């Protein structure tokens, strides 16, 4: 197979970890006889610094015409304390999601047996946890009409959803549940929000086409508790954009290391793969960033193109590295390896 | 002191636990020579059943003319699966908050040393946790304009905040921080929401009046992680209505038992005290409900009226009960006592 892959490595540790993911993909290309063509482009704070724009037109152009996007991370402390600044790195990411039509964000959360003791939660609570979170990514309060009164004393954001927006992500989530444990939990706040009531209605309708999947509902406040009390009860979680942002970040810490978590953002015409950790500026250039989340994002990319054996080759290599404790300082205090060395081991193992 | 207290015990286990809180308050009245006059009224599912209205006019009337409201719980499974039903118990609670102007919800979250092992989180993570969450309660997306298109395919909710709404709850939160560890964390999503940017701006201005309090900011997704990774970093958390609903419920599980957590909802003219557990219908009438959250809500009531010694008398009695393991089955599997017996012990101890 031939794939054009745009590489947007971004800020902070983004470039370091993305480099390891590319190495892993090149090893796969070599072993399985594929051709992957990588083209780099700017995004985030580095793009603002160089062009004034967090998502330059050439970057968007490249992404629109590529098969997949490999994304690093964005964000720089110099923008963090001023969310009202006219240009900010996040705007690049949000615009990219919207322009590429990436309406579904998929985040797997798994308790790796070797890492359970690193979790802030007790072993018996997290054992067996294997969740796939489907978050709507291009609608809701993120993209609804914003307003600030002329005198600056009243501000508002509109959370709006249409049936179509709910249906398309729901179908992807139900299909995923069919390949997993046939359970889907819709997280909403239907006891308060009109938009949540529409979610419940539309998802209940879509469920008719997936009779083998059990659908249940959880209010978001309760979901935030259940995620800690009993995470292994979940299979697929489906939710709207803002709730998904919160619940998926909460879920990300139960597995023991955020340095392992990958995500995919998909739409009808494009797809993007991204480690969920951020740009982690304090670690930049020190060789201590964990490359596994970026490498597992590459595995999600392969799986997206039905290269299942290839994806598993990456996952096996990662599990081997974890088993042998060939890991960065976040997971390994006694004998840590560098970002690059961990990447090398995984690449060689593939 | 003479206090008129409206008692809205509501649904499920509400009446059982509220009865124990009243006993504790009566013991305090007796020991400290106060007069507390209790008047009961209907709210929630039971009010719908009896009057068709989750907040009958007589109930609202009583609350408006009282010094404080002691609230039990609302909710009944027969309404849960139909959030679109025209009349629902939650509407009573939301209307009560709005009509009484209860714009601040205060929830203390503490790790009780005797209960740490009951927590889903590891001991070293939660030790020392002592948080007070200030949630705005009468604004934001809960009360903003809702809309459903005529053909039922587009739904929306408006999240709107004014400077005044932010200021008044912020002042209460800063004052609380001054009596605690002088730290206030604003939780928002200012990298995405216009309303959050107004929160940041206004809270930063209010902070000028409280120079002894350190203010910091956390995006809500990060807050959801930090609450699990390192809850003892927090002192006072201030946040808007929806984020407060999620974050405070998440925080409620770290202490080891939701059966211990009390809350206060305060405004300029009224105040209401409520255990944070819900109506827990499965436990109704079995004598297994933990009355401590309701009893600690009564302590918050006393403290609100500056009856600090009285509030501490209740808290000491509760700590004694926990220490001697005089507790309900949720905390005590070997030799559990009934709701009433736990209430009796605490009352006698006072
Ligand atoms: C950076 C921010 C705008 C973004 C979001 O809220 O979606 C991030 O938190 C994420 O989850 O990818
Ligand atoms: C019952 C519901 C409307 C309510 C809320 O969301 O405010 C509850 O979850 C709470 O936190 O008191």
Automatic annotation (TrEMBL), chains A, B:
Cofactor: Mg(2+); Mn(2+)
GO term, biological process aspect, one: L-leucine biosynthetic process
UniProt catalytic activity: (2R,3S)-3-isopropylmalate + NAD(+) = 4-methyl-2-oxopentanoate + CO2 + NADH
Domain Isopropylmalate dehydrogenase-like: 4-346
Keyword DNA repair set for record: no
Bound cofactor: record note: Binds 1 Mg(2+) or Mn(2+) ion per subunit.
Cellular component GO terms held in the UniProt record: cytosol
Residues marked Important for catalysis (site): 142, 189
InterPro entries the UniProt entry points to: IsoCit/isopropylmalate_DH_CS, IsoPropMal-DH-like_dom, Isopropylmalate_DH
Annotated binding of Mg(2+), by residue: 221, 245, 249
Top EC group: oxidoreductase
GO molecular function per UniProt: 3-isopropylmalate dehydrogenase activity; magnesium ion binding; NAD binding
Residues noted as binding substrate in the record, renumbered to the chain: 97, 107, 135, 221
Ribosomal protein among keywords: no
Pfam family, one: Iso_dh
Protein location: Cytoplasm
Pathway annotation: Amino-acid biosynthesis; L-leucine biosynthesis; L-leucine from 3-methyl-2-oxobutanoate: step 3/4
Keywords annotated in UniProt: Amino-acid biosynthesis, Branched-chain amino acid biosynthesis, Cytoplasm, Leucine biosynthesis, Magnesium, Manganese, Metal-binding, NAD, Oxidoreductase
Described function: Catalyzes the oxidation of 3-carboxy-2-hydroxy-4-methylpentanoate (3-isopropylmalate) to 3-carboxy-4-methyl-2-oxopentanoate. The product decarboxylates to 4-methyl-2 oxopentanoate.
Family named by the database record: Belongs to the isocitrate and isopropylmalate dehydrogenases family. LeuB type 1 subfamily.
Subunit composition and interactions: Homodimer.
NCBIfam families on file: leuB (TIGR00169)
Name of the protein in its database record: 3-isopropylmalate dehydrogenase
Organism: Aquimarina aggregata
